Structures are given as structure tokens and as C-alpha cells.
Amino acid sequence: MERTNPIMDEAPIIYAVPVRDLPGRLVRTVRTGRSPQGHRVGIAFTRPELLIAAMGTDQPWEELCESALRGMLRPLGIDVIQVDPLLVAPPLDPSVGDRAAPTVPARVPAAPVDPRPAARPVPIGTGAVFAHGR
Question: Torsions phi, psi of 129, nearest 5?
């Protein structure tokens, strides 16, 4: 019986990946975002139409295979790619400061604990991504 490697026989998936131009340079970088849970994620779309629907017609994009996208995200410490998010928030204004890490006050007062169980858990992977342009 002949053994085949199904991964080698399949063509790579090509994604439409949102990018941004770096000011004053002829360089583009992939846009990243945050999941509803606050984790940094890569953003990719299976079709350009889905990217346009989520991010608008002015959003530049490039075609990348998954391995190329992962290679660009790995140095940023990102190992999750959100595919076909339904909503992507616009990037923050660069004057806001460091966009890579959320700012947290030094002391946060403890919130009162509600002894009742949560009414309904929030579903994971709702498709919303909050882009921050990095």
C-alpha cells in the first residue's frame, strides 16, 4: 500500500491579510489585533470580499500563505490567527502611546464579588477583533 502525505498534496491556503504602510518607508507590515479576551492575534481573510466587508475598501491588503503569515507573526509573540473576523475596529491613533501592550493602572480597587453565578458565559471566538495597527 502506497503512503501519501496529504499535507504535501494539498495546495497552501492563500489569505487576504490586512497590512499597513510604515510612514516614511517603502515597507508594509501585517496588521494585528486583539481578541475579545485581550490576546494579540494575527488577522486573515479567506476572501478579499470578507476583508473589505470587515475593514472597508480603504484597507490595503496582501496575499500571503499561512506559513508566511505565521513567520511574520512569530517574532511578535503571536501564535493565533483570527480567520474571517466579522468586525475589526480601526487602529488606535499613534499619539495614544504604546499600542503593543494595554495600559493598566498601578492599583486597581477590588470589585465586589457577586455570589450569584454568571447569567450566561461569553462565547469564545465571536469573530470580533480589535486592531491596533501593529
Answer: -135, 140
